[in-house]
Design a protein that fits this description.
heterodimer, A: about 120 residues, alpha+beta, Helix Hairpins, four-stranded antiparallel sheet, 3 helices, globular, B: about 230 residues, 9 helices, 3 strands, about 15% strand, elongated
Chain lengths: ~120, ~230
């Protein structure tokens, strides 16, 4: 899998996959066209995250399980607190978020994402 | 607090971006533009239903006021989208969930997951990246979307689908496998990001991340960078 596809797991990506699924099933678009839409989404969401988001997050928690496979870290955490500030230089306007339940964290190697994104642009 | 793009405005700009960029491909394949409109409606509706997108306010367009994305579009389909999903078509959509995944797996072009297919099949774990959950027992954070679709999501591995009772299944697994089974289940709190560095000293883990999407307590939060400390 291209590393750039990681954001398909987000709710934004998941909703798009479901929407495409409906259209493919109704034979309004081909699966190939659906794949093109998803590739466009990969590029677009990555660009938006890089260019529009300035927030900075810190988190602490209990690590229950971890796995590193194919350059992807998967962490399952509990009793985790997240603190997000609006930008690197701002300490006000933070959003404290305490998550009592489990948190699943999926992290793809940033170098791979960069490499795959560059290849797809070429 | 300095001006910051709201999560919804970022999401709307991505939707606009994808729809406008993919238009030539739709035209090239001779697909009616109405289908592209339908895609946008479906996407926005499903995203709103998931709770990740604030509904467009009826009067004041504050939701798009500080986005850079073509606000002139005005999202004319939001109302229609609700109507579209309000009736039996919503149920139909759920029934069909997973069909794309199946088809794409047949053509061999669909990514089987973050984990390579071989490993995933071995562990009986296909990381879910799309569509409703394959397991009927899953509780979805947003409620509604997908909860009824478990059985329709036939794209997963056979291993993941056999046995309706997850508890019974867990009994037969070793400790290691049950950890992985835990990974397989759908979490209400999910963070998807890129890592720059992950280090460990004894039982203390530190990681630095970037470009992340967090779904915490039902709310989506985006970050440019993140650092975390975890105790194993």
């Amino acid at each position: 899998m291209a590393a750039t596809q990681l954001y398909r797991q987000s709710r934004l990506g998941d909703s798009l996959v479901e929407a495409l699924d409906v259209l493919v099933e109704a034979e309004k678009i081909t699966p190939e066209l659906a794949m093109k839409v998803l590739a466009e989404f990969d590029a677009s969401f990555l660009k938006a995250l890089q260019s529009k988001v300035r927030a900075r997050t810190t988190f602490r928690g209990q690590l229950d399980t971890y796995r590193f496979c194919d350059n992807v870290w998967t962490f399952i955490m509990s009793d985790t607190s997240f603190r997000t500030v609006a930008s690197q230089h701002s300490s006000i306007g933070y959003t404290p978020e305490v998550v009592l339940g489990k948190v699943k964290m999926v992290c793809v190697d940033a170098k791979l994402v960069e490499k795959d994104a560059a290849e797809q642009q070429a | 607090m300095e001006p910051e793009h709201s999560v919804s405005s970022v999401y709307r700009s991505v939707i606009d971006d994808v729809v406008s960029h993919i238009k030539p491909d739709f035209v090239g394949e001779g697909v009616d533009e109405a289908v592209l409109d339908e895609l946008r409606v479906l996407w926005e509706t499903k995203l709103t239903q998931s709770g990740a997108l604030d509904p467009v306010p009826a009067s004041a367009p504050t939701g798009v006021a500080y986005g850079t994305a073509a606000p002139q579009l005005g999202y004319p389909y939001a109302g229609a989208g609700m109507a579209y999903m309000g009736g039996s078509s919503a149920a139909a959509a759920h029934q069909h969930s997973g069909a794309l995944k199946r088809k794409l797996e047949e053509t061999g072009s669909w990514p089987t997951g973050v984990v390579p297919a071989k490993h995933a099949a071995h562990a009986g774990v296909i990381p879910q990246q799309d569509g409703p959950a394959d397991e009927p027992s899953v509780v979805r954070a947003a409620g509604g979307a997908g909860s009824s679709a478990g059985k329709a999501g036939g794209g997963g591995s056979e291993d993941a689908e056999e046995g309706d009772d997850p508890a019974e299944k867990l009994d037969t697994l070793s400790d290691v496998e049950s950890d992985e089974a835990e990974e397989d289940k759908e979490y209400e709190n999910v963070v998807v990001a890129q890592f720059d560095k992950v280090t460990r000293t004894k039982n203390k883990w530190k990681c630095t991340l970037k470009d992340g999407v967090m779904q915490l307590n039902g709310r989506d939060i985006l970050f440019n960078s993140a650092s975390g400390e975890m105790q194993f």
